[in-house]
Amino acid sequence: MKLLKAKRLVAAASVVAAAGIAPVITATPASADQVDCVTFLKNRDYIIGAKVRAACNIKHLPVGANPVCLADLVVIGVTADHANRACRLA
Predict the structure, then answer these.
(1) Which residues of 55-84 are buried (b: 16+ CB within 10 A; e: fewer)?
(2) Which DSSP state fits 32?
(3) Maximal C-alpha separation, the chain
(4) Residue 80 pLDDT > 90
(5) What is the pLDDT of residue 58?
(6) Are the C-beta atoms of 84 and 66 separated by less than 8 Å?
(7) How many CB atoms lie within 10 A of CB 37?
(8) What is the CA 12 to chain-centroid distance, rounded?
(9) Residues contacting residue 29 through CB under 8 Å, at least 6 positions apart
């Protein structure tokens, strides 16, 4: 009986995980949100390349900017304030 409950729990967790990942996988690389993020940085004289576009393609969280987006932009030389704003637009 415990094994059956465990299997059901794993199946339910898999469905929830798939539902959460599906929008990220199916998102278009050049979505309007990415454009807003890239445009914000371009207007502040940053060089826009593949790394900026990749960071801007990471979607924001409901409570603020995505920390992965922030970290990626800061590593390539974007100031923390600009990265925070850009990632909120993503």
Answers:
(1) bbbbbbeeeebbeebbebbbeeebeeebbb
(2) H
(3) 62
(4) yes
(5) 86
(6) no
(7) 28
(8) 24
(9) 53, 57
Please tell me the predicted confidence (pLDDT) of residue 32. 64
CA distance 90 to 31: 9
What distance, in Å, lies between the first and last C-alpha atoms of the chain?
Answer: 46
40, 89 Cβ separation under 8 angstroms:
yes
Is 58 strand, coil or helix?
coil
Q: Rounded to whole angstroms, how far apart are CA atoms 13 and 35? A: 33
Tokens of 71: 């970290």
What pLDDT is attached to residue 17?
46
